[in-house]
Design goal:
With 504 residues, this protein is of the alpha/beta class. It contains 16 helices and 14 strands.
Amino acid sequence: MSAPALFDLPAPASAPVAAVPATFRRSGITVLSYGLGADSTAILLMFLADPERYGLRADLSDLVIVHAVTGDEWPDSLSYVDRLVLPLLRRARVRLVQIARGGPEDADGVVVLDDSRQPRRIMAQGPWRLSDELRTAGTVPQMARGKRTCSIKFKGWCLDLWAAHEFGTSSFRRVIGYHADEMDRAEKDSGIQRGLNAEAGRTICEPYYPLIHARMKRAAVEAYVLGQLGEPIRKSYCAQCPFSGVCASRDAHEERLRAHPHVAADVLRMEYVSQALNERQALYGEKSLRKRLTDDGRNTAVLDAFELSLGQAAYAVYEVRRVYFAARTDDCRQWHGKTCRSPRWWCREPRTEVCRADHPASDFAPWCSGLDGCRGQTKKGQAWRSVRTVWEGSRAGAEAYVRALAVAHGMRLERGEHSRIERAHYLTGGDSYPTAFAYLVAAPAGVRDKQRPKFEERFTQLTGRDGTVGEPVRELPKPTPPSRTGGVPCIRRAKTIDGVTLIA
């Protein structure tokens, strides 16, 4: 192991037996992060079966179950917990708190959707869903470097803010359902928490992983839940998760999509818009869910529902422009550090081996003036994107508008290599950087117009063009800095009228 865990693993055990970690103080509260899946459900059942074995009071008054609602959970996962788990919580009078993001900005805080010892249902969504954020951005969840940024923003951040409001400076024990095959994830999590505790100068919380402590692997966890509840439990993950190949097998994922064609249609439409704005941004990188479902041959009903949803959607024509800058070279980073304030030619064009041999660097920087043989090929760096809505209406009208502008301005009509979505291109860029691309495309409406404050200036410098080809239907929203919480937890409660929770 790369780092010591916050607890000592016990000797191998054949049954789900756990001991209280030495760092736990019995005067504290235990918070179980409940994700609705097999792992956290197994822990919850173990706590209910024998509280004192896990350092809890017999009446479970020191246990709080917290569920962060992303708004995109599978209907069968919600139903499973409603039918089989919540009755157990009501019987034991265990506190269940359901929370969600209050909006796109951190300053919107966290909304408590329900806080009860008699919970009646798992909330399907809060005021701001993960899918809301993705649709307005015209994208899908990103897989860059394997980071689950969606989970951080819609689960981890909410749980941390709620805990800061609930406990203040008092410490608590935090339980997460990593199983015995996830030691690396648990060690990373405990390492992060140690750092946060050290930074705060106090113990914010103490991580505890009962399944790892009991040496229970995934198969044992699922068998335990099945034995306790009498029904197999499905994996819990968002329907549009790009890690669905990890969350479930491809066959199991597609079977679930077939069982919920309306959910599948929503995910496919999200992916369609994302690919319309960026050909290479499908759900699995360049590989699309749509192609997978089409190739499978068993998903006709799902694909028909998707096509129906496209036909019924309000449409827009988006003018998409991109500027790709040249990446900083290794020499630039070496001599200019993190920020390049006085760029030289070799800050963007790498020096060739000939240049390095003929013009060695001094004690201060390379001194070559940039002869032809000294300049290497630039590499792609940061990309800036502008998205402007230039027409709104029906699908047929939007597609006709794109073709009409293509004829009027001599644009090249071309279908995407992967998506087969038609675009009208008027800038295609080049192989060197910086460069620019621009096109018009019809897609379902709802993407927020957005561009950086200096985009127009850089785009004009690079291309000689000023503004868009189509006339934008609205002004760009004024740029505002991200709204933070200012260090004060913003927690508000959803209003309930006659048993109906108002989340807007």
